[in-house]
Amino acid sequence: MADDGHPRGRLAGRLIGLGVTGSIAAYKAVDLVRRLQDQGADVVVLLTPSAARFVGPLTFAAISRHPVEGDVLALLPDGRIGHIVIADSVDALVVAPATAHWLGAMANGLSGDSVTAACLATTAPVVVAPAMDGDMYAHPATQANVRRLRDDFGYALVEPESGPLASGQQGIGRLAESGRIVDAVVAALAGRPIREPRSERRPPTVAPVRDPDLAGRRIVITGGGTREPIDTVRFIGNRSSGKMAVALAEAALDRGAAVTLVAANTTVSLPDGATIRQVETTGQLRAAVLEALTGPGDEAGPDALIMAAAVADFTPTRPSAGKLTRGERVILELSPTPDILAEAARIARGLDAAGEPTRQALRPVPVLVGFAAEAGSLDRAPGKLVRKQVDLIVGNDITAPGSGFGTDTNRVVIFDASGGQEALPLLAKREVADRILDRVARLLGERDATDVDGDAATRQTVGPTHEGQP
Hints:
Strand order of the largest sheet: 12-11-8-13-16-17-19-20
Helix content: 25-40%
Radius of gyration: 28 Å
CATH class of the largest domain: Alpha Beta
CATH superfamily of the largest domain: CoaB-like
Number of strands: 21
Strand content: 15-25%
Low-confidence stretches: 1-7, 453-470
Structural class: alpha/beta
Mean pLDDT: 88
């Protein structure tokens, strides 16, 4: 590792696809992933169905930090075809171990698994390391397939080694040592530029396992879209699915928090481990949030409030008590809804509507996180953070590909009270959730370190003053 924190090695910056087929030597592919990473490579793994019976996908996902491609029909969370993304972005594909069955299928273009399909779809160099019984490798059919892959397809073959085999016999058929395979990959890439440097074009990453850094914390999360009644049947709503809030709730639960999810209209299943408060209107959401702020009974309020709900900005002033009929001419008069997050922040910090300290602040003062869904520019997000007096604002452009309502991915910018901002690439919403909770956990640690005597009332203002911001 260099001083700047970036990996250095013969494969620095490279993306390598590792195809694992159903040989007893599949367990050695775990070491091969590590050896490729030691040389600076980013590694994504593809498994044939039989390979997954030897080594589970979870093992490879954990060490590679990429989803494992094991189903040729599977799609990535953003809707892309997994093995095609790999084929189009890897610098090289390595098949190790390669069984006799796979060699025959590949030599004849039979793409019945993700490894073969990726090899057929790529123009990147392919390195093949066979492993099987000695007599099986020596069979004329196997040797004919090896020659075709090497001579006709241009694949680099890393010949198997001699030694004890799984059958108990001695012979040529052992998977080559990882170092030899890595050397073959380096040789295949000599003089070639990095094929796809853009992370968004590469396979997505999976979230690393987080420590239970929110154990003992109480987190309140709002999600979904509110509905404001026009009459007994119709309503004003929005396209929010609640996916971001559910991802936040699941991530917080996995990190040990006790989670209350205040759920408006959603299109996804709600997590079993959370306390669920179902609401429909903005007024009901406000009541649930303000109730949650004070905590049940004599208990303290939440350690964090994360407002991910898409709250309606307007509500019909006079909703009809019955169902409006088609022949009626309807003019809707709309009134603005309350700013729930700003009100919660004032209560938490003991401030009145004018920003003056006129009441007892909550103890402890919760970390407050808001969301700003914008269309186009995120220029207004920092002003919202200051005006609402919150710790973090998560801004996203709902018109950007993969970042709108109902998607499984999101591209956000996290704005903080010090004036800083962190732009994240397009990520699965679960990974976005963990990135937000990383910030929340740090803020809670700083709060606890600052308020050693338990007096959180001193934290009454947030962030710098930005004159003239909206």
